[in-house]
Amino acid sequence: MLTTTRTLRLSDLEPVKSDSLLALIAMANADIRPDKIDVGVGVYKDGSGATPILRSVKVAEKRLWEQQTSKSYLGSAGDPRFTELIGEIVFGGPLPAAIKGVQTPGGCGALSLAFKLVAALNPDARVLIGTPTWPNHQPIVAGCGLEIVEYPYYDRDTQSVRFDAMVAALEAASPGDAVLLHGCCHNPTGADLDESQWAEVTRLMVERELLPVVDIAYQGLGDGLEADAAGLRGVIAACGDVLVAQSCDKNFGVYRDRVGNFFIKSDSEETSAKAMARVLQLARESWSMPPDHGAAAIRIVLDDAELRADWLAELGEMLARIHRIRSKLAAAHPSLAYIGAQKGMFSMLPLSRDQVVKLRKDEAIYMADSGRFNVLGMSDEAVDRFVTAVIGVIG
Ligand code: LMR
Description:
- With 395 residues, this protein is α/β, with parallel strands linked by helices.
- The chain has helices at residues 20-30, 55-67, 80-91, 106-121, 137-143, 163-172, 195-207, 225-238, 269-286, 293-303, 305-332, 353-363, 380-394; strands at 37-38, 99-104, 126-131, 147-152, 154-155, 160-161, 178-182, 211-216, 242-247, 260-265, 346-348, 365-366, 372-374.
- It has a seven-stranded mixed β-sheet, with helices on both faces.
- Helix 5 (137-143) links the parallel strand 3 and strand 4 (147-152).
- Helix 2 (55-67) runs antiparallel to helix 11, helix 3 (80-91) crosses helix 10 and helix 12 packs across helix 13.
- The N and C termini lie far apart (70 Å).
- 43% of the residues are buried.
- The protein binds (2S)-2-hydroxybutanedioic acid.
- The site of (2S)-2-hydroxybutanedioic acid has 6 residues, from loops.
């Protein structure tokens, strides 16, 4: 047999295109102007402009420090009690036997398991993704070797979902295609499906035998915990198999602790158990066991009635701040009125890339090139300056 040899040289690597969000974080951090406004990355800021550790989480961390006696391994599934408690919030009650979950390093870890599982089912499977989407979705899917089929999700001119295009894409999809859906608080547009659109998408998933992969990273930051999960719960009720990537990074404010879960739902407990064995193998190959600290603190919060009530109050404060700032922006200029009805942490401003760059240069205001901005990225004091600057460039 003929063998060819080739040396492996790092210098042979193709240059990579830098991740736009990570580049934006670095650019904003490097700007030393004192009145800088960073509405780039999706982290919550309170009225003073700080990203605090939630009170409930802080108390739980203290308790954890006092009571935890070992940091020995937990296994690839992480802490089953944590996953069970989050599962109840996502699915609206005790988990049926056909839904099983594992703890993951953030929503990103969960997405990576989802698409590795799709690739294990069929390496030639295609994944339908509406654009624009979170900039890391496509790299995760492509990194699993899967083919991406894009369809236009959002119309910048009408600031609404291009539902006809979405339906056409789903109608043209083949049985066995996977479809990535945003559970709520669409990132980057803030434009969610309404109830009847979710029902139609769900109907098409069943009719076309498509596999829904639902990414729910912002539950509680759109219309509240229950309302934000309604679309996903409809999909779960109607479809045989469903994959769900969940994140606690935003709704518990534990960003750097990397806390999430991956859930699978199938038609039977037996199938879910078999699929979960494969998921655990994929987790073991990827990170072996998930980080524990943030998940352990959240488990303490949710298992304690008083801390759980305080977390709900804190989540309510974050949501109220989102609504307040959205209303203020919507009232500030007719061309910003749509922002009031959109959901979650992000919306896209009607700005060209040149206008975004001008805001960066002249005003020290940092947002993504697409005009995506974090509604919660500014202090109370900064809101007026932000509005004036944006209106200034819109004209
Ligand atoms: C964002 O979209 O800003 C966040 O989800 C942070 C990230 O990892 O990109």
